[in-house]
Design goal:
The chain is extended and about 85 Å long. The protein has about 290 residues and is α/β, with parallel strands linked by helices. The protein contains 13 helices and six strands. Helix content is about 50%, strand content about 15%. Strands 1, 2, 3, 4, 5 and 6 form a six-stranded mixed β-sheet that branches.
Length: about 290
Amino acid sequence: MKLRRKILNKSVISFLDRNKVSARATTGIIASTAHMLGISPEELHISKSAVNCQRRKIRKEVATSIKEQFAPSAPLVVHWDSKLLPSLTGKQKEDRLAILVTGQDVDKLLAIPPLKDSKGVSQAEAVHDILQEWNLVKKVKCWDFDTTASTTGKVKGCRVVLQKKLNHYVLYLACRHHILELVLGDAYKECLGETTSPEVELFKKFQQNWPEINKSDVKIYSTDQDMKKRLGKDRIKILKFVKTQLKDFQPRKDYKDLLQLILILLDPSATKSITIRAPGVYSHARWMS
C-alpha cells in the first residue's frame, strides 16, 4: 500500500490528468514498469479502482491547497460565460459555466461547473456558490459579462440575481465586443439593408472568392477624392496612432488586422510589408471578428 502511494503521488497523478491517461491505461503502465524493475505487481495492490481512488484523493488535496493559498488583496472582477460542451461521458452535451476572476496581478480560473439549464438564475447561483467556496464574495467589486438576455434581463437576468445575492454594489462591465457588435450591426443594416439570413451574404461571397482576388492590387485613400477630402490633415494623426499601436503588443489578432488594414489604406509604402489575411467568421453572431 505504501509503495503504491509513493508511485501514485501528486506529480504522477498531475501528469496523467494533463495527458488524459485513463485509469485502465495507468494500471497497465504501472504494472508493466514494475515488472521490468523486478517488482511484483501483486506487491503494489494496483487495480483500476485503486488508481481512481488515489486520483480523486490527490485531486481533492490539490484543489484544497490551491484555494487556501489563493488570497488576493486587490479588488476583483468576476467573468463568466456559458457554453454547451460534451459531458464527461462524451455521450451527450451539457451546459457548463466558466467562472474566473481578474485583478491587479490576478488571473484565476475558479471553476467550470455544469448547469441544470442556461437560465440567468442558474448561472447566478453557480457563480455565487463558487465565490463563496473560494471566500471571495467581499472582494468582488465589478463583473464582466456578455449582453445575452439570460445575463442582462432586468428581472431574472444573471447580473440582477447575482447582485442581490452579493448584497453590495458592483460595477457593471458589459463585454465591449458584444456592445460594439450591436452598434456596428445597426450601421451595417443602415448602409447595406436588412437581411433575414443568419450570415452576412456580402462577407460570405467575399470569403468564397478570396483565392481569385488579387491581394496586391490595393487602392489607397487618395484614389477616392471624397475620402481624401474628409481625411484632410487627420490622416497624419491617424497614421501616427496606428504605427504607435502596432509597435505595442496586441492581445487580439483582429485588433492587429484592423490597424494593418488602416495602415495599408493610408500609407502606400505599407503594402509591401503587410499581408492581407483571408476573412474569418461572417455569421451575424460573430461578424465583427
